Amino acid sequence: MDLIFDYISVRMFWRILLFFHFVLAVVLLVAVTLQSVAVLMPVRQAAGNFIQRVRAAPPAWYVPLIVILYVPTFLLGAWVYVKYRTYVRIPMEQLGHWWTVGSFEFKEHIVAFGMGLLPAYWYLWRQPLSEEHANLRKWVTIFLAISVWYAFLVGHTANDFRGVGA
Amino acid sequence: MTQTLDIHERSSELGPSPAIGAPTSTTTTTGRFGIFAITFGIAFAVLYTVFEQLNWPLFTYHPAVGKVDFWMQRPRSGEGPPMYWYGWLALSFAGAAVLGWIATAVPREWLYRVTIFCCALAALWPTAYAGAIFLADRVSFDAEFLKSVWLSAIPALVAAAAVAYLVSARSTQRLWIWLVLIAPIGGLAVLGYSLKSYFSR
After folding, report:
1. Which whole-number Å values give the CA distances from B18 to A126, B14, B21, B22, B58, in the listed order?
2. For residue A106, which residues of chain B lie inside 8 Å, CB to CB?
3. What single DSSP character describes residue B83?
4. What is the pLDDT of residue A165?
5. CA atoms within a 13 Å half-sphere pointing along the CA-CB vector of A35
6. Rounded average pLDDT over B11-31
7. Which domain holds residue A111?
8. Which of A99, A105, A124 sits opposite B2 (nearest CB)?
9. CA distance B181 to A120
10. Inter-chain contact A126–B1, Cβ cutoff 8 Å?
């Protein structure tokens, strides 16, 4: 770490980490959203506009991408969380931003549950897809999408308080 | 792969059959992965919720001084705020992985019923405890003994055992797999409720 800090400041290092976390989160957000659209509103033929083509994409396509993105996004977030705890949360509490603190606490839990669900999510989407578990597969996918959306919005709020560009 | 699991599940209901009970190595591997994945998902949600509520982290990290302590350590003067989240995660992941691995080795019918029993107990024990405290605070006589966490375990254990026993064989299979979604939602409800102080200030 000291080697890195010879070239960039500590502040810049954490900002770069936070930026990578943000970029991964955006790509993950796009993937879970497209998969959720394809799961909730499927169409058989890819005809017409962009939305219809998205709906026609096989939802199973997104699964490896989502798993591959979720894990590093989670790990990078867990790393950046150290800075949040010492540099962001304390002034947040001092200024009485309790809603943001509480929402961020909930974010920790929901993303952890998302991680715990990943093996089951992977399993439920393995080929050949089971007709019997179609409903469960759909709701597990929605749960993951909600967890990613929630984490993104709350993370963005915390970043606005004290982060990149704040 | 899912269909492979279904074949296993059905075979356990029908009893052992030489033809079904001797799957190929690939079939066994995929079936086991399904059992592991579902059990891991259920166990992780339950364990994480319990460890967070009881504050049982595997370790405590003090980011201001870069120090790690085993188990739970209260904040110490001059060492900044302690972080427990990593410790809850480590303990939950390890515990869920061990339970998932054990699940692949036990008979399916046992697995379903034990999982349902554990989940029912995880839901009923705190409910019984909360009910006992509510009751103890409202009755006219001295009912402080009701506020024992171990006393409330008795009705919770009996009720959980009854639930696990009374659910039909076919329903256990369906309920078990749905618990992978029910357990995290239930866990989030508990954890969310415990954060209410942040939203009511």
Report:
1. 27, 12, 5, 6, 45
2. 188, 191-192, 195
3. B
4. 66
5. 28
6. 41
7. 2-162
8. A124
9. 10
10. yes
